Amino acid sequence: FAPWKDPNAKPYIQFENVTKKFGDFTAVNNLSLTIFEREFFALLGASGCGKSTLLRMLAGFEEPTAGRILLDGQDLRGIPPYRRPVNMMFQSYALFPHMTVENNIAFGLKQEGMAKPDIEKRVTDMLKLVKLEQFAKRKPHQLSGGQRQRVALARSVAKRPKVLLLDEPLGALDKKLREETQFELMDLQQELGLTFVVVTHDQEEAMTMADRIAIMDKGEVMQVATPAEVYEAPASRFVAHFVGNVNMFEGKVAEQSANTTRITGPSGAQIVVENGGAAAKANADIVFAIRPEKIRVSSKKPADAVNALEGEVYDIAYLGDMTVYHVRLDDGQIIRASALNAVRVTEDPLTWNDRAWVSFRPDAGVVLAR
Ligand code: ATP
Questions:
Q1: Tens digits of residue pLDDT in 196-235
Q2: What mean pLDDT is reported for the chain?
Q3: Which of 44, 52, 65 to mutate to test the pocket of ligand 1 (most atoms within 8 A of CB)?
Q4: Which of 76, 79, 223, 361 is 20 to 30 A from 260 (CA-CA)?
Q5: Residue that finishes a domain, picked among 240, 261, 291
Q6: CATH no. for residue 73?
Q7: Residue 25: CB within 6 Å of ligand 1?
Q8: Interface pTM (ipTM) of the complex?
């Protein structure tokens, strides 16, 4: 499933040069973005970056100050929220406390004037979908947080919207339940064949669930890509930092040939990079970004290493599935390197304050503009 790679795929949701101002404040700045049908799309960014505003404009709670939003080719301007084929689920799911689960789910359908037998059938389907058949007669306060969340979900898809918008949908759940629910949401989206747009500030959540992620900052989109691309090929320093752990080496491009870049760090250390990309221009001030798991730590300089820097083990954290090393390089920079414990047992038994080498392959990181 990768409609964004298909030049003939029809865009489903289109933000075209959308700006939203609140007084003098620009919450969304000339933003363009395309989402495809049946995509699970995540808007990821820090608090205040404008992601909720974007969602609210799609739902019709706010109108853009400039630009337009199209859904399946139709300009949504002026269409009230209840006439858009879009439903929104909020973090505070606001179930009606005095109503049973089934009545909560049926509420919107009754309002729409759906016939009673159809409502019953739909509610039964929805209860089954979220695996709450036995809880139909309970009231929200008789449910766990995770169950309440599923009622809210059932209620928001009961009317069969084409697009479901989820604003921090799992924010109220604890970590374990949140992780389980992420997979449930993915299954549900597949089963219903809907387009999901989820807003989150949690990068792991976005990475787990989404087909593609838009990373936002100050009302603008910094990068739109699959989770793997965002992680492996971040387009900027901001994105590299925002998603996952990363080491950054500031330096200057000392030599640039066809597909090899040689970088000189502030203390003279040399790094060789293959396929440096657009930022790798002769004499450019750049940062070299490399993920911790791409770095190997060893007590001896590996014979075959193209890039090897020497330092001292500063910290070791055992995390169960992996071990994280902090190595202080001789120029003072602290490097984070991680190794899966399943493979680490074959490496040296490094310990605190040992001399150590960090090494990495020339294709292990990316060159980014400073
Ligand atoms: P969070 O994760 O904290 O919800 P967000 O990225 O979703 O953040 P938005 O809710 O979209 O951010 O808000 C973006 C900016 O616009 C914020 O600085 C916010 O204060 C401002 N803003 C949002 N709604 C309004 C409003 N109705 N009036 C004035 N400013 C607003």
A1: 999 999 999 999 999 999 999 999 999 999 999 999 999 9
A2: 92
A3: 52
A4: 223
A5: 240
A6: 3.40.50.300
A7: yes
A8: 0.93
